[in-house]
Design a protein that fits this description.
10% strand; 22 helices; disordered C terminus; 535 residues; alpha/beta; nine-stranded mixed β-sheet
Length: 535
């Protein structure tokens, strides 16, 4: 009898291993992968209690309820794991209600960058892993049940006794990691449901007051203005020693080249509403002058008549372009953003090799932006979205020095090999840094040509790079640079928080304040102010 009870006890312990891991997984403080919280999961105690009801009665649960329980536990475990891994992979918390919409895009990203064998392997795993996990959970539940049934009747009551600590709440002995994850993600779903079903007023209040629309911008004269979003260009480049060793020399080269071309430059750090992805939230926050921290607020903003940077500049007499090389379908809510013209991938007429997810290299897109037909009687306000530094950061286009070869790469025969080589998903930091260096190089060449004697450029990151590269930061800051040959104007536009040069050290607020800050500074410029040269 003692031997049979020992076997039952071992079977019970074996059955507890899988649900313990599912419930106890927690975010890692060090490293890429999650850790285990070695406290007893309260959810595990509740589950064992429910299983024990049949053994207490001297019987077993039918097979169907056990499999049903396994199929219910599997999505709970997946949501919990995704919630825990969100900060490690994205560098931000998971927002289930919004992030589920991006799953098809992520699948497309992987399919476009992976080799055929990688796609086949992942496709097979996508079927076998969930089935295998469900079967393993079902086996574990059955093992717990059989183990309890083989114990003496008084020991079968132990789960009932342990229910008390399970219901008290998290403490030094009991954790509730899974319940916390499910509650947090359930709130994102409930939040989305409330907005969809008429709770519009409270969400409008979250947007805050709209930016002012009336500005006298005559002091800007007929200056062309470029607002350039630099994909995944985050302050972690400066804060992480593993990245700054390459980033600081790249910024020094960038600064040296633009200043030798006669441009003044001032830089700062500015907070983005998103981290690791969701570039459109950053773009929308800047263009709307409103903090759009999630997809719900972004979508709500586009249903209002609130002012945008594009509309304000159009009203003030500028011709406005929104140039997005990664835009392959018509832009949603294009009328709201108020640009005269949306320039997508098809409008750029690129037919060269495909680099990364979006295909078009930034050097080509920047060069094409200077040849787009425009109204010579109006100054230009052009928003340009760079894409070459988007995950998976591979392949990084070579910098082409022959203007006639931009987009063809005849002078770079290695391109065929580059585009045929899939990314190494286990080593993204190197390609990430190469892509940043690439964009800084092509920007340094392009800016003097684009700005001429009077133009102004604002270059800023959209968000920090995904933590998947192996480097992360607690900050949502990104670098921002203001450049022009008019040194006095650069000082006006880049005042508090900005420093001379390309390496930002101070903070300039948030992206939600950038439009008002720029327009207020521009409105304060006396009409006909003289253009000054860099010191």
């Amino acid at each position: 009898m003692a031997q049979a009870e020992r076997r039952s006890g071992l079977l019970l312990l074996a059955g507890l291993i899988v649900p313990f891991i599912l419930f106890a997984v927690t975010a890692s403080r060090i490293g890429r992968w999650p850790s285990l919280d070695w406290r007893v999961p309260g959810e595990l105690l509740v589950m064992v209690f429910l299983i024990s009801l049949a053994p207490i009665a001297g019987t077993r649960w039918p097979t169907a309820p056990r499999w049903l329980a396994a199929l219910l536990l599997l999505p709970i475990a997946i949501i919990h794991y995704a919630d825990v891994e969100g900060p490690a992979v994205l560098g931000r918390d998971l927002d289930l209600a919004a992030d589920l919409d991006h799953v098809p895009s992520l699948i497309g990203l992987f399919a476009g960058a992976a080799s055929p064998w990688q796609i086949i392997g992942i496709s097979i795993a996508a079927v076998l892993v969930p089935v295998g996990l469900a079967a393993l959970i079902a086996w574990s539940l059955g093992a717990i049940e059989r183990g309890l049934l083989g114990l003496p009747w008084p020991l079968r009551l132990a789960p009932l006794v342990l229910m008390g600590p399970a219901l008290i709440g998290p403490n030094r002995f009991v954790s509730h990691e899974t319940s916390i994850s499910i509650a947090r993600q359930g709130e994102t779903v409930a939040d989305a449901w409330r907005l969809t079903h008429g709770d519009r007023a409270s969400f409008l209040a979250r947007l805050g007051p709209p930016p002012a629309t009336e500005r006298d911008l005559t002091g800007l004269g007929r200056r062309d203005i470029y607002l350039i979003f630099f994909e995944s260009y985050g302050a972690v480049l400066l804060d992480d020693p593993g990245l700054s060793a390459r980033a600081l020399p790249a910024l020094a080269r960038f600064q040296d080249k633009v200043t030798r071309a006669g441009l003044a430059i001032r830089s700062a750090r500015i907070a983005s509403p998103t981290y690791g992805g969701g570039s459109w939230l950053a773009h929308g926050t800047v263009d709307a002058g409103t903090w759009l921290a999630n997809q719900r607020l972004y979508q709500l903003e586009t249903t209002t008549d609130r002012p945008t940077w594009g509309r304000i500049m159009t009203k003030a007499g500028w011709q406005t372009f929104d140039i997005q090389p990664g835009l392959k379908t018509p832009l949603d809510h294009a009328a709201f953003w108020g640009f005269d013209r949306i320039v997508g991938a098809d409008d750029l007429n690129y037919d060269g090799p495909s680099f990364g997810w979006f295909g078009i290299p930034d050097q080509y897109a920047l060069d094409r932006s200077l040849t787009l037909p425009r109204d010579p009687s109006r100054p230009l306000f052009a928003q340009i979205v760079l894409v070459s530094s988007h995950i998976p950061f591979h392949p990084v286009p070579p910098v082409v020095t022959d203007p006639a070869d931009v987009g063809r790469f005849a002078t770079h025969p290695e391109v065929a090999r580059l585009v045929a080589t899939p990314p190494d998903w286990n080593d993204l930091a190197g390609p990430y840094m190469e892509s940043v260096e690439y964009d800084l190089t092509v920007l340094a060449d392009w800016l003097p040509r684009a700005l001429g004697d009077t133009g102004v450029a604002i270059i800023l990151g959209d968000h920090q790079p995904p933590a998947l590269i192996g480097h992360a930061s607690a900050s949502h800051d990104v670098p921002i640079h203001i450049l022009s040959k008019d040194a006095a104007l650069v000082r006006r536009l880049g005042d508090a928080g900005f420093v001379d040069g390309a390496v930002p050290t101070g903070g300039a607020g948030t992206m939600a304040n950038l439009m008002d800050r720029f327009l207020d500074a521009a409105a304060a410029i006396p009409a006909g102010a003289a253009v000054s040269k860099p010191e």
